[in-house]
Amino acid sequence: MSSEQSPRVQFAVDQRLIVPETRFEVIDGKVEYVSPSDEPHGSRHSKVIGILEACVADDYDVACDMLTRTTTLDDMAPDASIFPRERDPITGGRQLEELVFEVLATERLNEASVKARKLSARGVRRIFAIDVSRQRGFEWSREVDSFQILGPGTQIEDRVLAAPLSLDALVYAVKADDAMAQALLAKRNPIIETAVRTSRSEGKAEGLAEVLAEGLAEGRAIAKAEFVIALLRSRGLVVSDAERDQILGTRSEATLDAWFAQAATCTSVPDLLSGRQR
Hints:
With about 280 residues, this protein is α+β, with helices and mostly antiparallel strands.
């Protein structure tokens, strides 16, 4: 039985075929160049990461474009992954991701299926594809060996999530911010809870409903700032205390939205904050 067919492979998920931090993958032994993201793929990619960061359970972490060794001939980087924080007790490296998300734009569903089949054979439990142009979502089925479309309003529940993940939020940009805020509230995020308490203490009878439904500037800005920081850290970028304070202290939603969109591709935090990002 080949290593692709067997879950007992002879290499770790972080044993590389390709040089990390480059725009390449290896699929079926062939080095493939991965082009930088343009709209709408790039903006939806960053939204997916932000939503996952908001929903992920405490014992798990989120990664962006993280290489995973699936077979002797494959080393590929899904758009977004959720994996355990705990190190692998045998290799000392990271553990295999449990959930994977691919954002479809220039990439077609059949191309994503090639990756999904290999990731599934490697042991990834659940694999999703988000079609940004047609605004629909799919989940990989081992039984039928293909992606199956998910119905509108689907709530993805899993042990790696502290709050249900809304499919509509993943495919519709307009719903993403509300989904992130609701997820952080479900996780009892201290900054969001402080904003809610402040709203109530100032005599706003609507309290939580007003924060969520009308998007009070304070609560929304704090939530967006947290998402920017989470996305930067998920890419392995170091956010200093001063930079964290600057981001959290920003109340311009336009600025925070711009930072959030650029945080998935910027080369450093100082470049992002100064406007020098690529």
